[in-house]
Design a protein that fits this description.
The complex is a heterodimer of chains A (390) and B (359).
Chain A: E1 4-5, H1 16-22, H2 38-57, E2 63-68, H3 71-90, E3 94-98, H4 103-116, E4 119-123, H5 133-139, E5 144-150, H6 162-171, E6 175-179, H7 191-194, E7 198-202, E8 213-218, H8 243-281, E9 285-287, E10 298-303, H9 308-317, E11 320-321, H10 337-341, H11 346-349, E12 352-356, H12 363-389
Chain B: E1 4-8, H1 13-24, E2 28-35, H2 39-43, H3 52-63, E3 68-72, H4 74-90, H5 97-116, E4 121-123, E5 128-132, E6 138-142, H6 151-154, H7 159-163, E7 165-166, H8 174-183, H9 204-211, E8 220-224, E9 229-233, E10 256-261, E11 266-270, E12 277-282, E13 286-287, E14 296-302, E15 310-316, E16 322-330, E17 338-343, E18 346-357
Parallel strand pairs in B: 1-2, 1-4, 2-3, 4-7, 8-11
Antiparallel strand pairs in B: 5-6, 6-18, 8-9, 10-11, 12-16, 12-18, 13-18, 14-15, 14-17, 15-16, 17-18
Helix pairs in contact in B: 1-8, 4-5
Classes of the chains: A alpha/beta (390), B alpha+beta (359).
Chain lengths: 390, 359
């Protein structure tokens, strides 16, 4: 079957140049960077070069680059490591996040509340999924140890005012983390200007390998090690460095930033063609998230009178790989917490669809998608009506 | 590509091999798992729950390069199977939830999904066969593997359901299926056969019923076969037919539970000579190959999944239920279980046992 991939927010294929950059470090340059000998030095050189590249790409002079296994580990390290250390220093016990965070944040914060005596509070968002800065300010007090706000949400693509949010927190002496896993692929991030204390990114969302990411940490920002052991990553994350993946990630970030501006212009036009095509051709359809302040590759909808899971299956059978929200493989008809958090009613939230574009997306693919979708939606709505009528 | 088939996959050996065989035979195969009842998973507050079986089925599907989807039928399963199960026990019956699940969920929800997806057929890993006659009528036939034959629980299927069904394993015996699984390099090839009811969990069915607040202990009378009151009981569920222990003393000679009358909430006991029933009355009967033109006939009846078919005569009654007269009395005909009529290998049809008698 002729398949069309429209799920770049779930993951992306590894770029050929990235693959080639990685290959020597699987076999020929196999040394352990912690070893004193020549082999170790060669490997260590590669990861330190990668670290320097990444720092310069993100204008992150004032930051440490901590290599992790990906976005979820970076989020965990930031939340657990910062909240625990900050509580020790100031006695503050509250973790504040937005109501549209990734599970890596919400489940970590919930566990810290249930098992470690922290208090977890969620900041409501407007119905475009974006936080309100004045209500953030209202919630801040001495009890708050850490604020974590997603840069761009994975399900709805809305972009939050991170720089402003970080500033408000810093004025009250509160630490600030952002999960930039989705944002990093499409925004040209200047960390010194953004001035967050911690930021998570992941390589596989931007044509790098899976299983590797970074937690940026502002120098001197508190952080308690979560994976203890050897002294890798300045003692902040033990475990033999994954040299090929780290090298691949640096290459992927470099290539991505080289093309991000021209690619954004191209993707924006495809995305808007897609959004217009879907909204105009199918009644009872709504865009979720903000109309303009969203990632250049990201379109997300809710459809009245159908289930997102059924839609996903029908589209997959027609050769279109999309998602109903996050990359969830199990048919669970529970509506997304993120959509509910934006005030969307459960019966509508259940009919969600996410279509995300990437560097191999072509106009012709969008045309085909827009042509196929109305018929599929109509069919599913008819089936749903007859099911309900039984 | 060949006809489109949706195959029900559980992650186990049988359904995995069934999927593999269909792919080999050139069908356009889609795997599907029904998410029926995963109480534990919901409690874990895990929206994207991946029990082991889903992971295994997905792995098998990836091995065969077929699409695989999980369909949520929890609500329907709760109504049609779990509530039915609980209600039956409350009514003093011994239900057969697998029979009920097959006809309402697998051949209800799954078949409907399959047809919505444009599939002509659905398939399962059951050990049973379908034979089409010259009039294109489907006949349900026992699986070649007598020990594994599952036609008992499939006997509630209708002609129109069978018209859209494929049983890829019907001609195979279990050891051949395991052999196929090894040939396909399935990691599930050595997995144990599933035994218990899928939804009751580790607590067993009594624990499950208790958890759902089922009132089982409804006291009533114990009578002998002549209808004399000989004692009181604390609930029909404490008794099984043929049971000797716990009937109290003072009856002189050993007594046994002869039958359980759920309508009157009575336990009927008697001596060894009186043990056994030779008449079974069913609920409305499902004739597999359409309406039966004769009003009576001879057949063999199976009253439990594992019992040996027993020779009998049957008579169709006015409300389309049937009366079965066994040549020899049987001890374990139990209301709520299924009476399945066979003509050798062929399933003629079935009905839920309503009551039993000795005449």
């Amino acid at each position: 079957m002729d398949r069309i991939y429209l799920d770049y927010a779930a993951t992306t294929p590894v770029d050929q140049q990235v693959l080639e950059a990685m290959l020597p470090y699987f076999s020929h340059e196999f040394g352990n960077p912690s070893s004193a000998h020549y082999y170790g030095q060669q490997a260590d050189g590669a990861i330190e070069q990668a670290r320097r590249t990444i720092k310069s790409l993100y204008n992150a002079d004032g930051y440490d680059v901590i290599f992790t296994s990906g976005g979820s580990e970076s989020d965990n390290l930031a939340l657990r490591g910062a909240a625990t250390e900050q509580r020790k220093r100031t006695g503050a016990t509250k973790i504040l996040t937005s109501s549209v965070e990734h599970d890596a944040i919400t489940r970590t914060a919930s566990q810290l509340q249930q098992k470690s005596g922290f208090i977890y509070a969620k900041l409501r968002v407007a119905n475009n999924g974006i936080i309100d800065l004045s209500s953030l300010e209202e919630q801040l007090n001495k009890q708050v140890a850490l604020v974590s706000i997603i840069y761009a949400n994975n399900e709805i693509g809305s972009i939050n005012p991170i720089k402003e949010a970080a500033k408000i927190c810093h004025e009250k002496g509160i630490l600030f983390h952002t999960d930039a896993v989705q944002a990093a692929a499409h925004l040209n991030i200047d960390l010194n200007g953004l001035d967050v204390d911690y930021m998570s990114i992941s390589a596989h969302k931007l044509y790098g390998p899976k299983g590797v990411g970074v937690l940026f940490k502002k120098k001197f920002a508190p952080l308690l090690t979560q994976i203890t052991g050897g002294a890798q990553e300045s003692g902040l994350r033990a475990g033999t460095s994954n040299v090929p993946l780290i090298v691949g990630m640096a290459k992927a970030l470099e290539l991505n930033l080289e093309s991000v501006e021209t690619e954004n212009i191209r993707l924006l036009s495809l995305r808007d063609q897609l959004i217009t095509g879907v909204l105009e051709n199918i009644s009872g359809t709504h865009l979720t998230g903000d109309h303009t302040n969203r990632l250049s590759n990201h379109a997300s909808f809710v459809f009245e009178g159908l289930s997102g899971n059924d839609l996903l299956i029908a589209l997959d059978m027609a050769g279109f790989a999309v998602s109903s929200g996050s990359a969830c493989k199990v048919g669970n008809p529970k509506p997304s917490e993120v959509l509910l958090g934006m005030g969307i009613k459960p019966e509508l939230a259940i009919g969600s669809l996410r279509v995300t574009l990437g560097k191999f997306s072509k106009k012709e693919e969008i045309d085909r998608f827009i042509t196929a979708l109305p018929e599929i939606v109509n069919l599913l709505r008819k089936e749903k009506r007859s099911e309900n009528g039984r | 590509m060949g006809d489109k088939v949706v195959v029900a996959m559980s992650g186990g050996v049988d359904s995995s091999v069934a999927a593999g065989l269909l792919v080999e035979q050139g069908y356009d195969v889609t795997g599907m798992m029904l998410k029926m009842w995963v109480g534990d998973c919901d409690q874990a507050e895990n929206a994207c729950c991946t029990p082991e079986s889903i992971a295994q089925a997905r792995e098998v599907a990836s091995l065969f390069h077929i699409p695989f989807y999980v369909i949520d039928v929890k609500e329907s399963f709760k109504q049609n199977v779990v509530d039915y199960f609980i209600q039956a026990y409350q009514d003093g019956l011994t239900p057969n939830p697998c029979f009920q699940c097959n006809r309402t969920i697998k051949w209800g929800e799954l078949l409907r999904k399959a047809s919505e997806m444009g599939a002509e057929f659905m398939a399962t890993g059951h050990y049973a066969r379908i034979r089409k006659d010259e009039n294109r009528l489907c006949h349900l036939i026992k699986g070649v593997d007598e020990k594994k034959d599952q036609t008992y629980a499939l006997s509630g299927l209708t002609q129109s359901q069978l018209q859209h069904t494929i049983f890829p394993l019907g001609g195979l015996i279990k050891s051949e299926v395991r052999e196929m699984a090894r040939k396909y390099c399935l990691t599930v090839s050595e997995k144990e056969d599933s035994q218990d009811l899928c939804f009751v969990g580790a607590q067993g069915y009594r624990g499950f019923l208790k958890q759902y607040g089922t009132v089982l202990a409804k006291p009533g009378l114990i009578k002998n076969v002549s209808g004399d009151i000989v004692g009181e009981h604390q609930g029909l569920n404490q008794y099984t037919i043929g049971q000797r222990k716990g009937l109290g003393s003072g009856l002189g000679i050993p007594h046994y539970v002869i039958s359980l009358d759920s309508n009157k909430n009575e336990v009927i006991i008697g001596t060894q000579d009186e043990l056994g029933q030779n008449v079974i009355l069913t609920n409305p009967f499902n004739w597999i190959s359409g309406n039966h033109d004769k009003h009576f006939g001879t057949a063999q009846v199976k009253i439990r999944y594992k019992s040996i078919p027993a020779p009998c005569n049957y008579t169709i009654l006015e409300d389309s239920s049937i009366r079965i007269d066994l040549d020899k009395p049987v001890r374990d005909a139990t209301p709520g279980q299924i009476a399945v009529l066979y003509n050798d290998d062929e399933v003629l049809g079935s009905g839920i046992i309503q009551s039993t008698m000795k005449e």
